[in-house]
Amino acid sequence: MAEKKTVKKKTAKRVVNKKPVGVSKKDKKAVPLFLGVLIIIIIAAIAALIIFVGLETVGGTPVKIGDNVTVYYFVETPEKDFNNSGEFTFLVGSGQVIDGFDSNVIGMVKGGEKSFTLTPDEAYGDFDPEQTVLWPLEQETDRTINMTIENFNLSFGENPVLDKAYDAIVYPWMVRVVKIENDIVWLQHEPEDEQIVELPYGASMVKVMGDKLVVKLFPLTGSQFTSVYGPYGFPVIMDANETHMILDLNHPLAGKTLVFSIKLLDVIPA
Fold it and tell me: Which end of the chain is more exposed for a tag (fewer CB within 10 A), N or C?
């Protein structure tokens, strides 16, 4: 009898292709693209911020005629024999500053800096030797002055008292109340006779002549003269004799070339 053979069936193993866990090739290609776009957006945002901050600190609308501006300046002559600096505010185009300065500020922006040179015709004009005047060394003025009671109170801090002497800060001597009528107070200057008063442009001697004061100046040549008696501003004393002095009415910077360095600190648009 034939022996029955047992046949073992081979079970085929099922092979499962396992995909690696992670990002597909397609996704891998998308990542750099996304990062690139993100970087571009970040760069654009930073650039916009920089521009915004720049406009706030060094920028804005350019200066035009009618704007109110504040400027810091340094000015000197090419020879270095004069210099000055400071900060001031002015209305552009109003004639408050010399033409050359005005025109150079136009077009600047807040925070901007600029250097420029102005010739005499752009600044204070050429020196004119004919711009001189003879000025008497002696001046006469009334010994009494008057003011309202209101102004007296503002000046001296109290109501006026007849025959009382007060220390007037603007004069180097006392003033005395000699009359009060209605709303008006009369004050009399009381300097010592032939009192000497030192001034930046020389010494003055004050003489008491009844109801008048006679003031004689002993001028300091080369100094700038100021006086309540004339409309000449701040002329320079060129020369003097026994009775008169010669005043140079040219601006002190007339005939000079000026070198400016400026910074625009603030702008209030028109």
Answer: N
